[in-house]
Each structure stands twice: as C-alpha cells, then as structure tokens.
Amino acid sequence: AAASERPLAASFIPPKPGRYVFAIEAWTDQYATWKRDFLLKRDAGLDVTLEAEEGRRLLETALERFKDRITTEGNGFDSIQDPAILLSDAATEVASTLDHPDLTRSAAYPLVADRA
C-alpha cells in the first residue's frame, strides 16, 4: 500500500498519574517528500534538474529563519548548488522548520493515568 494509505501508530507514556488531554496532528513533510522523489528519479537515471531547483527553494525558504546563524557558522549553506548539500543531514534539520500549510489536528481526547 502507498505510504498515505498505511495506518500509522504511536504511543506515549504519561510522566505521572493524573488527567491529561492529547490531540493528534498530521501534516505532509514537504522536504522528506521532495527528498524521496528526488532520490527515486536520480537513482532511475532521470534528469533531476527541476527537482534540484525545487529542493533549493525549499531550503532557501527554511534558511530565511536562520540566515544570520547559518552564515556565521559557515556550515556550507552559502551556496545551495550541490545536490549533496540538499540531501545532507544538516539540510534535513533546517528543512524541519518549514511551515505545515496542510496541518490537520484531531479533537482533544481525555486520558486518565492512574498508575506510573
């Protein structure tokens, strides 16, 4: 089944007994989706020029929030022309700050934890 069709599961353990309220949030990870598609096309030998440009734009959007810090740290984002930079762990971390325009939130659910 496609990733979007697979049910997801998660769990958490309340830190101590008591009453809690939780909600479930979901969104599309724009960077992870771009990276997956980029790698699939690149590995299939297809031209990824447009995909690389899309990745650069995603990172540039995320970098705007960290421009001063990134430049002073000198960690390679001054020029995002190399696809290796677009695929790096640092790029993944920076891209995690992108907005989530398709954020969906469930109703709030009550939870009572009576044991630690």
UniProtKB/TrEMBL annotation:
InterPro entries: GlgE_dom_N/S. Residues 9-115 form the Alpha-1,4-glucan:maltose-1-phosphate maltosyltransferase domain. Signal peptide: none annotated. GO terms for molecular function: hydrolase activity, hydrolyzing O-glycosyl compounds. This is DUF3416.
